[in-house]
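ugh ok fine here u go
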Amino acid sequence: MGVKKRVEKRQTEKMSDSAFKMMAFTFKIVDLIFPYIKRRIRKFGIEEGMTVVDYGCGPGRYSTRFAEIVGEKGKVYALDIHELAIEAVRKKIEKHNIGNIKPILIQGYNSTLSDNAADVVCAIDMFWIIKKPTEFLEELRRIIKRDGILLVDDGHAPREETRDKILNSGIWKIVEETKDHLKCKPTYERGR
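structure:
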């Protein structure tokens, strides 16, 4: 049974502890063999001083790179529904003495962040697992600044499915599409 089918059968979007540990171990090996993350995130538009949300941060492999880019004047919020993800990020913060990442354990789609908090929100290899995409995208729109950027990659879903979920929400427009990700901007009705 494929990854997508197993996820669809689960009642929750949260993976088991053993699956998380296996994923984190796999990422560690992949990052040693193919250190592509730094190259990949150059296209994300993240700059010094920005506030970035790594939504579904997992073991923090992107959060730590974002922290390097935004520097001391910037902030990275590493959000996840899994306790082991938050623990992994905290360990990286301590090990590398990183002062600009704040890990946050969240429930459902409530990020707990204030309105208009983020310049960039990244949903990397996690959007495909979201069971209520419009509800999720509404939360992202709430926390992003009016001129903010949302970056979504397909993960284990076909591009057409990712694109449809974003556009069907009616609150995001796709402004750039690469092989790697979709770059989106929030839409605003008159008066908002």
